[in-house]
């Protein structure tokens, strides 16, 4: 598998940098005959698009997607689907400070250590702009799994969590935080605003659920559904943790409390709980597939931080440019995309080995 | 990548079932010229071996490894290294109940849903016995990364955590729990004993640290070091969560509190903190690489749980056989092995693209 | 893909050396539910087995296969199938000469140049004994493509070709040369005997045909059916050329002469010719899939040949040990196996992307 | 590995159709720090470009390449290099006949059988226009192997072969046939012209040689250098045969005649012959690496050929559009590109496993 490719049969490769002319994705292995136009992709990009509220970076990118191949007569042909998004608002800026000193928490030092030099304009390849390409690819993946519905939301910002009792899926699109709890959304507005004004930043936890996944998807041992989801989510910029089902909480439960008992149901067993997050032995059980993802606070802050220059001298650096005060918020559509991409791949893998 | 293969250049494939004649691993891509004998592998298998204390399953397996290929004159030749471990104590047992009804929390139902039937003897391929093959492969991987030291320990059992102030690496091998805190080890003895006697089970959290990893390992975007570690760890039986560095805790910190400032050091920058767990932008920074892994309580408990039969009828099932009351304990050497396997692979990948 | 793994969904990994304790293959991705026992594999190994006539090496290997995993209740489970063949007749021999000087035409020098040293006993990993593992894996692949019949034969030895007019499939198993032309078989008996007695060696051309392959298998662009067959066949020891359909002869035909016209048929088009060898655009057309493979004469000859020692000094070397005077003969079952393995993989790949 | 991706570490993915807006390649795993601009790529595209003489298709494509990512400050960054070539001369044409009936020898029927429908404009994805993307990627690969020189030429057109005694490398670029024999070039002018005027077509054989390849590249068993070359070349449109070194001719030689004896040399052994084409045991020996590739005559001919319609009815079809009378000619730069791509990948693979 390539470094910049994900998936085994339904695969996508992304390319592009923050300040290059464009970025994109090539999807390979997509089933033929799926109705696909740019209008199927754009709404998902619009969700992730920066500059839509004061709570995200003020970079203005229309993020218009173009389909360059793989579609004929409005349908996927089974050949590679090339998607391109042109960068528009690569604001002319003085990058001399970033070029010279490493921003702590960013990939600056690591890229230099690995490659010997780096594209320092907006973080180059390490920028979260790369996730636009994932979201575009994810929109295509959704078409390959029409039986599945996927929904992500923000569960926690800066340590302030939603109240599960107030969960209302209809609220998720009613606020700029993908927050299912209207009260929490109100609190977060202040919280994020304060961080933004202070030039500080906040972390977040995203939850994502896929319903309609039939039992049987997942390829033990090293392509388990949960293993693939963990890889997919951990590859997102700023992510530091991934949980399936109850995750770390499960480690605190007794075997009795963590059980997901079954009863006879109409279509396979009816489960009485879902601590497992819809996955057992790396294979879907037919229950909702659930993942939780921790985003660290973005490392771009106004407070100067000690650092070193490329030449190894002491320095201080503060980030004045455009950035998200809470990068996790825009992580929600990205986690959704990764869920879709993993599930599409696993559906095809299952069909390859087991038919049907 | 195959379902049962992990890695990109330094790769291993495992095979075998709980109650088959043997299990094993084939390692491909190992550098030539490394001194390797069975004695380099056996100590790691002995750590994971069942039946060494009353806190693990009473299945008695010597877990003797045989090297069947890839070594000549005591050195690796660069060709595939085939490792085999014969199963010895596949106790003759009546599996009719397990064959008939699904054990909740186990892979039974999922395997049936996927493959149409399953090897129900001891869980077949879904048994944690598969991890013996990983540990054997991991021992070989260590030889490919002599610059790195890897150490895992148990940080929490059944919600009872170690006291970081009492952390003593020398204690880890002094108790049957890989516990670095002698007081916690004493408490856990009672805790696990109680669970065992009650036929209950407990979860655990494992921490693992790799020191000596140079800056520059990790292949963005979809073979990031953290993404690979997440995939590797989540593929271990019973794992439900993975964290890099501060993990979910990082989501609760401000950007200022989460920063890892740098100062000039003797060999590259000196970091003043390691919230990131030694990885930035998916690439190692030269700091210790840190991962935490949550193991759920084993689903095998004495208390009967509601379930369904293969024919879809209501039933109850309790697990009377041999099993670990806390499967996470023996997870420690497995997490170590996965860390070694990921790092060996990333070292080779880095060398491929960037030389040196 | 690993160095020692072939295939994308139906994959196999081989391991083992000529004079190690055993060799084997691990098959991953095999569909579940196929009836499989060692008796399904052994007949194919027996065809390739050395020592069955005076026209092959006199090494006596029973080549008994053992299934170590992946089968339960006589059926494949969908988990890795581990196959092992123990080496029995690793005749104790003085290898000092081979250890010291490079045999021209063998892999000796190349392995040393690559790995720094080599297992010189019988060629180590570069020995054609590795193909036993392929034949075993190929026997399993056949079970996954019951709609297909595969047959290979020897078409040419030492430049003496069969007469197409005398082609009789029933003859193929009636002589030690897999020769479909009884007259040619009689001639080859003298030819190969003469070469054997003179300590010389001969090349051969193998043809292989698969019937029953439905239209639609093959994954353009870089996993085309013909591209995969070329890779599979060229990886066999001593192979120097691969042709699909008319191969090099097609380059001499006009477009008119090379056409494969179609007429309406009962099940899809009826083709009036098969210059293409059953493949167009990398995809099967429903016609028989045809490949031809050129084997060079084995490099082991009694006549001393100029060479150099490991230390770079001039030397002469002659091969006195056991070897095949015409290694191409035993290539027939190996080419069959590779055809089966490629087709099984392509069947599954097609099912993954296109369903059905 | 994806269907449309080639390579293991130095990998490229191509996308695009004959009549889509553009086509391109994404290169992943390229070493960082290589000087790269569009000017390094364009000359190779110009060699393959259609419309440069009356012996190739009259489609007029400037084939201007754009680098969209992976380069900063004139150097490769180690991140994906996205190359795009816009289609310009997708002449408006009536495709109703091609849409309705299958052109024998083309991929039309096979694509329909596989995918259920097809992009019939100029052959869609099955068009040889895809090879422009390979040539662009190959130009980048050359930069990764500066120690290697690669040269391809046409050795045979329509059965008329060059005279080896008249081989003059300097002639190759002096005629529109990449022909190293001036006399043959003169003959071919008439030959190809006659075919073109008659609406007929001719096959060709391309030879390609890489010098400067050090001993040790190649990854046995299933990523052997020859196996990779075979796969790479057989994936080119219209290719039906691949030979390494003496190829099929080697099958007619005795072991003595086929030997490549060695003598002490200044840098490793000096070989006295190169029947093997520079590869032994799948690994380069330090001699020139030689491959020969057979191209069938293009299936587009003016003479009507029997065929069937999509509905299965009898029809006749003749190709009136623009096409190459001998598609093999423009195959020369494509074979060079594939040689470069395989060698770059093998260099990196060797470095991964064996260092240096």
TrEMBL record, chains A, B, C, D:
<comment type="similarity">
    <text>Belongs to the chorismate synthase family.</text>
</comment>
<comment type="pathway">
    <text>Metabolic intermediate biosynthesis; chorismate biosynthesis; chorismate from D-erythrose 4-phosphate and phosphoenolpyruvate: step 7/7.</text>
</comment>
<dbReference type="InterPro" id="IPR000453">
    <property type="entry name" value="Chorismate_synth"/>
</dbReference>
<keyword id="KW-0285">Flavoprotein</keyword>
<feature type="binding site">
    <location>
        <begin position="125"/>
        <end position="127"/>
    </location>
    <ligand>
        <name>FMN</name>
    </ligand>
</feature>
<feature type="binding site">
    <location>
        <position position="322"/>
    </location>
    <ligand>
        <name>FMN</name>
    </ligand>
</feature>
<feature type="binding site">
    <location>
        <position position="54"/>
    </location>
    <ligand>
        <name>NADP(+)</name>
    </ligand>
</feature>
<comment type="function">
    <text>This reaction introduces a second double bond into the aromatic ring system.</text>
</comment>
<feature type="binding site">
    <location>
        <position position="48"/>
    </location>
    <ligand>
        <name>NADP(+)</name>
    </ligand>
</feature>
<feature type="binding site">
    <location>
        <begin position="237"/>
        <end position="238"/>
    </location>
    <ligand>
        <name>FMN</name>
    </ligand>
</feature>
<dbReference type="GO" id="GO:0008652">
    <property type="term" value="P:amino acid biosynthetic process"/>
</dbReference>
<keyword id="KW-0028">Amino-acid biosynthesis</keyword>
<protein>
    <recommendedName>
        <fullName>Chorismate synthase</fullName>
        <ecNumber>4.2.3.5</ecNumber>
    </recommendedName>
</protein>
<keyword id="KW-0274">FAD</keyword>
<dbReference type="GO" id="GO:0009423">
    <property type="term" value="P:chorismate biosynthetic process"/>
</dbReference>
<dbReference type="GO" id="GO:0004107">
    <property type="term" value="F:chorismate synthase activity"/>
</dbReference>
<dbReference type="GO" id="GO:0009073">
    <property type="term" value="P:aromatic amino acid family biosynthetic process"/>
</dbReference>
<keyword id="KW-0456">Lyase</keyword>
<dbReference type="InterPro" id="IPR035904">
    <property type="entry name" value="Chorismate_synth_AroC_sf"/>
</dbReference>
<feature type="binding site">
    <location>
        <begin position="296"/>
        <end position="300"/>
    </location>
    <ligand>
        <name>FMN</name>
    </ligand>
</feature>
<dbReference type="InterPro" id="IPR020541">
    <property type="entry name" value="Chorismate_synthase_CS"/>
</dbReference>
<dbReference type="GO" id="GO:0005829">
    <property type="term" value="C:cytosol"/>
</dbReference>
<dbReference type="Pfam" id="PF01264">
    <property type="entry name" value="Chorismate_synt"/>
</dbReference>
<keyword id="KW-0521">NADP</keyword>
<feature type="binding site">
    <location>
        <position position="281"/>
    </location>
    <ligand>
        <name>FMN</name>
    </ligand>
</feature>
<keyword id="KW-0057">Aromatic amino acid biosynthesis</keyword>
<keyword id="KW-0288">FMN</keyword>
<comment type="subunit">
    <text>Homotetramer.</text>
</comment>
<dbReference type="GO" id="GO:0010181">
    <property type="term" value="F:FMN binding"/>
</dbReference>
């Amino acid at each position: 598998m390539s470094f910049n490719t994900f998936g085994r049969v339904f695969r996508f490769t992304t390319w592009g940098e923050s300040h290059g002319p464009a970025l994109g994705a090539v999807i390979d292995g997509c089933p033929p005959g799926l109705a696909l136009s740019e209008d199927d992709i754009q709404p998902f990009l619009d969700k992730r698009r920066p500059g839509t509220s004061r709570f995200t970076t003020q970079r203005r990118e229309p993020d218009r997607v173009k389909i360059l191949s793989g579609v004929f007569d409005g349908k996927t042909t089974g050949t590679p689907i090339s998607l391109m998004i042109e960068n528009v608002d690569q604001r002319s800026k003085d990058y001399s400070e970033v070029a010279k000193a490493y921003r702590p928490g960013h990939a600056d030092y690591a890229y230099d250590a690995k490659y010997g030099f780096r594209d320092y304009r907006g973080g180059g390849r390490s920028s979260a702009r790369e996730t636009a390409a994932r979201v575009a690819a994810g929109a295509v993946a959704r078409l390959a799994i029409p039986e599945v519905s996927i929904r992500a939301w923000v569960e926690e910002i800066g340590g302030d969590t939603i109240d599960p009792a107030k969960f209302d899926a209809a609220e998720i699109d009613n606020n700029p935080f993908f927050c299912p709890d209207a009260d929490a959304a109100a609190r977060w507005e202040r919280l994020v605003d304060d961080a933004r004004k202070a030039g500080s930043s906040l972390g977040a936890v995203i939850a994502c659920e896929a319903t309609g996944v039939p039992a049987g998807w997942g390829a033990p041992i090293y392509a388990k559904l949960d293993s693939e989801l963990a890889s997919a989510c951990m590859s997102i910029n700023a992510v530091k943790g991934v949980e399936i089902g109850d995750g770390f909480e499960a480690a605190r439960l007794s075997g009795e409390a963590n059980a997901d008992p079954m009863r006879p149901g109409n279509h396979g067993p009816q489960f009485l709980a879902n601590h497992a997050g819809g996955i057992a032995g790396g294979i879907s059980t037919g229950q909702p597939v659930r993942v939780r993802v921790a985003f660290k606070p973005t490392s771009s802050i106004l407070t100067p931080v000690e650092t070193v220059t490329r030449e190894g001298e002491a320095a201080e650096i503060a980030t004045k440019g455009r950035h998200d005060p809470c990068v996790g918020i825009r992580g929600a559509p990205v986690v959704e995309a990764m869920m879709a991409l993993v599930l599409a791949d696993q559906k095809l893998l299952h069909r390859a080995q087991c038919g049907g």
